[in-house]
Write a structure and sequence with these properties.
single chain, mainly alpha, two-stranded antiparallel ribbon, 2 strands
Amino acid sequence: MIAFGWESRNFYARWLGSRDPRDLDELKGPCLNLMSPQSDLAPALLRAVQDVLEDAGYVASLKRHYAMFKQALRAPAAKRR
């Protein structure tokens, strides 16, 4: 699993409950999820994702879609239908 964190260091410090810079650095940007099993291809796939995420327009689209998803989850169940 590849994660992509774009929030502030303070956000991750609160979320993780740690201010250890190494922990926070693991959550910023694309990274391999350390709690998930990884295949031998994981490092190469991470490099490919890092290349794709250099496109600022694509990153903006990811953030926008994530915000839309979170907003939809906050909507009453009847409205989500």
